Prior knowledge:
single chain; alpha/beta; Nucleotidyltransferase, domain 5; 2 domains; globular
Amino acid sequence: MANKRTIPVVAVFDVGKTNKKLFLFDEHYRVVFERSARFIETVDEDGEPCENLESLRLSVFESLKEIFSHPLFDVKAINFASYGASLVYINEEGEPLAPLYNYLKPYPEKLKQEFYQKYGGEIEFASLTASPVLGSLNSGMQFYRLKMEKPEIYAQVQYALHLPQYLSYLISGVAYTDKTSLGCHTNLWNFDKQDYHAWVAEEGILEKMAPIVSSDHVTSAIFTGSKHAVGVGLHDSSSALIPYLVSFKEPFVLLSTGTWCISLNPFNQQPLTTDELSNDVLCYMQYQGIPVKASRLFSGYNYEQQIKRIALHFKTDITAFRNAVFRPDYVALLLEKYGNKVNINWKELQFASRNLSAYENVWLAYHHLMMDLVSQQYHSTQLVVVGTNAKRIFVDGGFSRNVVFMNLLAITFPEVEVYAAYMPQATAMGAALAIHKSWNTQPLPNNIIDLKLYTPVQIKVNS
C-alpha cells in the first residue's frame, strides 16, 4: 500500500538525440523530479554513428527501479516521447535484430530511385504521404532498405517499432503503433486515405507493423510489484503541441524554435501542394490523429554560426548576445541603408554573405542578422498560415527569450498576435497530458503556459 503522504505522479521519459531525460509530474503538472543522462553513441555495421540501444534500455529500467522505490512518489503511469524517425526491429522474443539506424545515414541513391519509380514518382508519392523525399529520415525507407539489403534479418522481424513505441514495449510487453510516429514524414501513411500507403502491403511490410492504437491508449503493467498504466509513446514534435491544444481552442500556429525552427499549424488540414513540398513543408500528426501542417527552417543552427562570426569580427564575447536589447532606431537605420529587399531564394540566409566591415558596431550587425532571420521566418511560417484563420503565433524554445527576435516577429506579423510562450518541458508534459485520464484525478489544467504578448513597435524610417 502506498503511504498517504506519497505524491501521485506520472513518469515521462523524454528521449532526444543528445539528452535523455526523466520527469515526474504531479497531478497539477508540476515537475517534482528530474534527471538527465547522455550516452556515448555506438556505430552500426557500416561505421555510421547510431543510438546505443542497450545503454538506453538499461537506463530506463534503472531509472524506474529508483523512482518506484522512492518513498515520496506513487508512480501511477509511465509514458514516452522521443524522436520518431528511426525504427527498432524486434523478433518474436522482443529482442532488437539490428542497430537503431541513424536517420541522417546516407541512403543508397539507386535504391531510392528504384523505389520512387515503382510507386508513382517522387512528387505524387510525397504528396500522398506528406513526406518530402528525405532518404533515411523517411523511416519507411529504412525498413524497405532492410528488406532489400538484409533479407535474412528482415525475415526474422516480428514488428518494426518507432523508438517511442519500442520504449513503451520494454515496459508493457505489448507492441503497438502510434499515429504521431506514423505521421512524421515516414513514407508509410497515406494522408488522403488515412491508412497505410499501398506499397506497405505490396512489399509485405504491413504484416510486420504492430496494431495501431490511439495516443491516449494505455496498457496495465506491473513493475517491481506495483501496478501502473503504460502509454504507447509519442513522437516528440507532436507531443510538444499537446499542451497548446489542451490550453487553446482558437486557431493558432506554434513556432517551436531550436536548432530547427518549426512552424506547426494544427488547424491546417489542406493537402500539401507540390510547391509546399519543394519548400520543406510536411505534415505531422497530432495526438488526436489529425494532420498538422508544418514548415521548417535551420535557423537555430544558422544563428549560432553567425553570432560566432560577429563576435570574432568585433572581438566581442559571444555571451553578450544573450542580453541583447531591441533597438528600433537600429532597425530604422538598417532599413534606410539596405531597404527591405529579400533574396529571391529566401531559404538562404542573406546575412551569411553580408560584409561585417559595413557595420559601425556589433549591435547594428546583430540587428541585421535578426532582421534577415525573421524575414526568412516570415516566408516559412506563411506557408502554413495561408488559407487558415490562425490569428495567434506562440513561440517557444530559444528564440522566445530573444527580445530582438520577438519584437521583429511582431512587426513582421502585424495582423497576428505574437506571444512568447514559457512552458518548461513541453514535450514531456504533452506525453503526460496524453494519458491524463489514466492516472490523474484532477481536471485538465488551464494555467500551464505563461504568455507574453509582443505589440508591434512603430519603426520610423526617414524618407
